[in-house]
Design brief:
Organism: Desulforhabdus amnigena
Membrane topology: Multi-pass membrane protein
GO biological process, one term: cytochrome complex assembly
InterPro entries: Cyt_c_bgen_Ccs1/CcsB/ResB, ResB-like_domain
Structural class: alpha+beta
Keywords: Cytochrome c-type biogenesis, Membrane, Transmembrane, Transmembrane helix
Length: 458
């Protein structure tokens, strides 16, 4: 039983350790730098186009191409949450105990040992001394609380007592930010969709995996427009979108870069654009028989050549093939043989390479359509993160600009037994001692001045 208790105590102390906090923060900082420098959202097959095989293996193994959704990054966030909670549990009771503590007496000998203390003499009696001390301190510092001390005057004054708990507001706000980040990581997604003009789709290709997520509604691109500078660089591009749900058009909106559309918590950003092939009009001439076949080939759909068992498919299109102009990649499927194909140069119909087996091929026309590229994102934890971030900024600001200041006042007024009375005042702060020293000295100067003026009037 004692061994189990000792083990749990060790685990508890480990999670309460400042060293663990520093380790987690440094690891998260390094990971965030990697996530900033390394392009995020790439699919694993796209990594090979940007990195060497070795680098690709490391990136894919540790999920660095989608770092913020990896299990180990989430584990670090969870570990940081536990660390903050345990640190708060360990230290908060002590802070509350200090907050509740109240002085019941003031010892003048102890006050003279404070770093900030002053003592001076006065001929004023009890009531006059008490009045000056309470009035000046209330004006310059804060309301005094008088303590029971028969025959003597003792009191305390405090400012910013609750500031000792502000650090736990920062702890709490960090937990809120981490909670929002975990919710977004677990229940959100990020992907993209390409939609041709006039078409609608519900499929989102996820960035974190090579799979498609179907939305509970469709997005239709009614129109796409792009404008360009004289240099050819894009100036502006926009998409007219319609949300279709249960067969009904429920929302229409034009989006631009930095002006997205949000529907049911899912945001659509204008990300890119391009053109795609709808179909191609192609002539096939059988060099053996001399017959010519004119076909309309839907993009990436195999079509039979009439009167034969052959099928042909348009597989890919390039606007400029090695500076020879546009080219269409065709594949011929023939029974009992491996598929064969070739790039057909559109602007060079008599090019000798425009041939697939016994067919001389000429492309008459390629019909293209423009498509809009949308980045699709859902982050249900974003508002929690914003709330935590605002609370954190407020907490950090209050932590820097507020402090717990406390004064102890002891006075032995003049009377029948003594001609001169004594006043001892001391102060302490938990932050910014230089500023406190200036305020403390100014307060003591005002007290001495008021006591002296009052003494002269009396």
């Amino acid at each position: 039983m004692q061994q189990n208790k000792g083990l749990w105590q060790q685990i508890y102390q480990t999670f309460a350790s400042l060293k663990l906090s520093i380790f987690i923060f440094l690891t998260l900082a390094v990971a965030s730098v990697i996530g900033t420098l390394l392009p995020q959202g790439l699919m694993e097959q796209d990594l090979e186009q940007h990195f060497s095989p070795t680098a690709t293996w490391w990136i894919a193994t540790f999920g660095l191409h989608d770092l913020y959704r990896t299990g180990w990054f989430r584990f670090l966030l969870l570990l940081l949450c536990l660390n903050l909670i345990v640190c708060t549990i360990q230290r908060l009771p002590k802070a509350i105990k200090l907050l509740r503590y109240r002085d019941d007496h003031v010892d003048p000998e102890k006050l003279t040992k404070f770093a900030h203390h002053k003592h001076f003499s006065t001929k004023l009696g009890w009531e006059q001394t008490k009045d000056v001390l309470a009035r000046v301190i209330a004006k310059e510092f804060g309301t005094t609380t008088e303590l029971q001390n028969e025959g003597l005057y003792s009191a305390i004054a405090e400012k910013g007592r609750w500031s000792t708990l502000i650090v736990y507001v920062v702890h709490f706000s960090v937990l809120i930010v981490l909670l929002g980040a975990l919710i977004g990581s677990l229940f959100g997604f990020k992907g993209f969709m390409n939609i041709s003009e006039g078409e609608a789709t519900a499929g989102v290709v996820l960035s974190s995996a090579d799979r498609i997520l179907n939305l509970p509604f469709q997005v239709r691109c009614d129109a796409f427009e792009a404008s360009f500078y004289e240099t050819g660089a894009p100036k502006d591009f926009r998409s007219d979108l319609t949300i279709i749900e249960d067969g009904r058009e429920v929302l229409q909106r034009t989006i631009r870069v930095n002006d997205p559309l949000t529907y049911k918590g899912i945001t659509f950003y204008q990300s890119s654009y391009g053109s795609s092939v709808r179909n191609a009009e192609v002539e096939f001439q059988d060099v053996d028989s001399g017959k010519t076949y004119k076909l309309v080939l839907p993009y990436r759909q195999a079509i039979p050549i009439p009167g034969t068992t052959d099928r042909v498919q348009a597989m890919q299109y390039q606007q400029d093939m090695a500076q020879f102009g546009p080219a269409l990649a065709l594949v011929l499927f023939r029974e009992g043989q491996e598929p064969s194909g070739s790039w057909i140069l559109v602007d060079m119909p008599k090019f000798h390479g425009n041939r697939i087996q016994n067919y001389q091929v000429k492309v008459d026309h390629v019909e293209q359509s423009r498509y809009t590229g949308l980045q699709v994102k859902r982050d249900p934890g974003v508002w929690i993160v914003w709330f935590g971030f605002v609370a954190m900024l407020a907490g950090i600001g209050l932590t820097f600009y507020t402090s717990h200041r406390k004064l102890w006042i002891w006075a032995e007024p003049a009377g029948e037994e003594r001609e001169w009375g004594k006043v001892v005042i001391a102060g302490r702060t938990n932050k910014n001692p230089l500023a406190f020293e200036q305020d403390f000295n100014h307060l003591c100067e005002r007290l001495q001045e008021e006591l002296k003026q009052k003494d002269q009037r009396e």
